[in-house]
Amino acid sequence: MRQSMTLIPTLRELPSDAEIKSHQLLLRAGFIKQIASGVYSYMPLAKRALDHIEQIIREEMENAGAAELLLPALQPAELWQESGRWYTYGEELMRINDRHDRSFSLGPTHEEVITSIVSDSVPSYKRLPITLYQIQTKFRDEKRPRFGLLRGREFIMKDAYSFHTSEESLDEVYQKMHQAYTNIFTRCGLDFRAVLADSGSIGGKDTQEFMVLSEIGEDTIAYSDASSYAANIEMAEVHQVYERSDEPEKELSKVETPGKKTISEVSGFLNVQPSHVIKSLVLIVDEEPIMVLVRGDHEINDIKVKNALDASSVEFADEERTKELLNCSFGSIGPVNLPATLKIVADNAVEAMVNAVCGANEDDFHYINVIPGRDFHVDKYADLRFIQEGDPSPDGNGTIRFARGIEVGHIFKLGTTYSKAMSATFLDENGKAHPYIMGCYGIGVSRTLAAVAEQFNDENGLIWPTAIAPYDIHLIPVNMKDTEQKDLAEKLYTELKEHRYNVLFDDRNERPGVKFKDSDLIGMPVRVTVGKKAAEGIVEVKIRKSGEMQEVKAGDLLEVLTNIFKEL
């Protein structure tokens, strides 16, 4: 492609509203243009990179036995009402009405649509298992779009869905998809980890996220420093044995703690360690208030609370609701002398506490010498806290360390979550109806583009991995008005294309400095410069990643490039 015939609107100034490197560089290098908050146009360079990512996805999906289709972005409300998600998905679901006042949504995901289609089209076990996927634009009304393509309101996604007659069949395809995703992100050149995760609003169980390691990632990964264990911090289990102290039990007593509300304030005032204080909070679990207890040096993990209680929704009660229940403010609540109707669940660490401190359900007062089981009853003990750096790894190997990550893929075992809700069944060999057992597998395609940009850059611009680079080679004649440079560049352009290289030919009448700055900014793997030695048949070859440069005879260029691309 001749650069004069395409659109690459590079910017010299750093965009003021771009917070992270990938957002800044994709804007500056002319890959994307913002149309509205969280909504972007993909310019020609981005479209080519996205096409390459999508081609990798298609190849690996086909290898995994998945067939491509394309589902409508506009989905009737009836399907979402049938699954129940019309009422539970939340404000991110973009709802619209047509001229006849019929309700629709712009699809953030397609479980309902695909379940309906398969239910109508695959009535017998003889056609199962089957895996179907699409690559399509999705819509989510994000409250705060940010980080460019990493959290937008309109984005490109690959979503696949598998349908099975048995859990064993689902397990087999789940593993195939895990391998396919590993292949996809490896081929894209990314440094990533597959981590245990929560299924969130999609539903189901047994789920893994594919996380690209990045300091700006919105998710925290807990990983072992001695094994392959990795999990989203929300799902990392705490496998720690808490030894109960053998110190003599003391008598419960109430003490005044004027103005002391936080764990650090209370522990400092009473001269005890934070680990000696019981942290108490009220959570609303499926509309029922429940008190949750953890040790003062730990944090409550609401996802674990949800899973431990097999709940549909969990949220922290605000201070107004807490006062209604306990007649005291945050920082003074505790499990002693609670109303009989208020259940208590506690983290495993609480059970081992002796002579602890907790709120007295009276502002400016706390209890000391509190002992679980003696002074209050716990309805259930479970792992309810966030894992911490330095904790033992759940797999028994090494200790936990933290890293930040960008989620680019997610695979789920949905089970019968949607098929039961939507009465989607197949007939077995005896003619008996059963709900489909389902799997779901998503990749953020545009998010992957941003994740690559986040990992592959330097102070001069982007550095694209060869597999997804918009072009293999950036061919730059320094001066298009110089006949010898122009003629040699045109000759090389033709030869390179004939040898199936994708070439961006900078035929613009721009200053050399502008051309070179643009070239570094947009970051093609190899730059070939035709300059002052064109008359001698010599060109300069530069590898963008390493900065290595060499002069090459034009006649040897193809051989040199072959060797370079073998190494990239």
UniProtKB/TrEMBL annotation:
Classification via SUPFAM superfamilies: Class II aaRS ABD-related, Class II aaRS and biotin synthetases, YbaK/ProRS associated domain
Family the entry assigns: Belongs to the class-II aminoacyl-tRNA synthetase family. ProS type 1 subfamily.
Pfam entry (one): HGTP_anticodon
Highest taxon listed in the record's lineage: Bacteria
UniProt keyword terms in alphabetical order: Aminoacyl-tRNA synthetase, ATP-binding, Cytoplasm, Ligase, Nucleotide-binding, Protein biosynthesis
CDD domains xrefs: ProRS-INS, ProRS_anticodon_short, ProRS_core_prok
Job of this protein: Catalyzes the attachment of proline to tRNA(Pro) in a two-step reaction: proline is first activated by ATP to form Pro-AMP and then transferred to the acceptor end of tRNA(Pro). As ProRS can inadvertently accommodate and process non-cognate amino acids such as alanine and cysteine, to avoid such errors it has two additional distinct editing activities against alanine. One activity is designated as 'pretransfer' editing and involves the tRNA(Pro)-independent hydrolysis of activated Ala-AMP.
Domain Aminoacyl-transfer RNA synthetases class-II family profile as annotated: residue spans: 53-465
Subunit and partners: Homodimer.
HAMAP family per the UniProt record, alphabetical: Pro_tRNA_synth_type1
Coiled coil residues, start to end: none
Gene3D superfamilies with a match to the protein in the record: Anticodon-binding domain (3.40.50.800), Bira Bifunctional Protein, Domain 2 (3.30.930.10), YbaK/aminoacyl-tRNA synthetase-associated domain (3.90.960.10)
Catalytic reaction list: tRNA(Pro) + L-proline + ATP = L-prolyl-tRNA(Pro) + AMP + diphosphate
Free-text comment on this protein's domains from its UniProt entry: Consists of three domains: the N-terminal catalytic domain, the editing domain and the C-terminal anticodon-binding domain.
Protein known as: Proline--tRNA ligase
Name of the encoding gene: proS1
Chief localisation class: cytoplasm
